[in-house]
């Protein structure tokens, strides 16, 4: 992912500490949804990032907070809805 404030192709997004604002990494993905992902030493795969639809989020959010308890606490600290970003393989 190429950052909005940096041109580094290996930008690693971090959790944003400004609870009321959309984090920069989310704006990066909105503006440039093409990403490269490598998991556990596997080959890099090109993917497209997108924000989950309301129906997808309603289904997935309980699964996310069940596995990552801090996300539920994070959601209580902001009035904005924490988006879920889905990655889909590029053809």
What report would you give on this structure?
It contains 3 helices and 3 strands. Helix content is 33%, strand content 18%. The chain has 91 residues and is an alpha+beta fold. The protein has a single domain, classed as Pnp Oxidase, Chain A (Roll), CATH 2.30.110.10. Strands 1-2-3 form a 3-stranded antiparallel sheet. Strand 1 (34-37) and strand 2 (45-51) form a beta hairpin.
Short description:
With 91 residues, the chain is of the alpha+beta class. The protein contains three helices and three strands; from the N terminus they run αββααβ.
Could you state the CATH homologous superfamily? Answer: Electron Transport, Fmn-binding Protein, Chain A
Largest sheet: 3 strands, antiparallel
* Percentage of β-strand residues: 15-25%
| H/I helix tally | 3
Overall structural domain count = 1
The termini sit apart by: 18 Å
Mean pLDDT: 81
Helix and strand composition category: alpha+beta
Q: List low-confidence stretches.
A: 1-16
Q: Please state how the strands of the largest beta sheet are arranged side by side.
A: 1-2-3
Which CATH class?
Mainly Beta
Topology readout:
Layout: H1 24-31, E1 34-37, E2 45-51, H2 54-67, H3 69-76, E3 85-89
Antiparallel strand pairs: 1-2, 2-3
Helix pairs in contact: 2-3
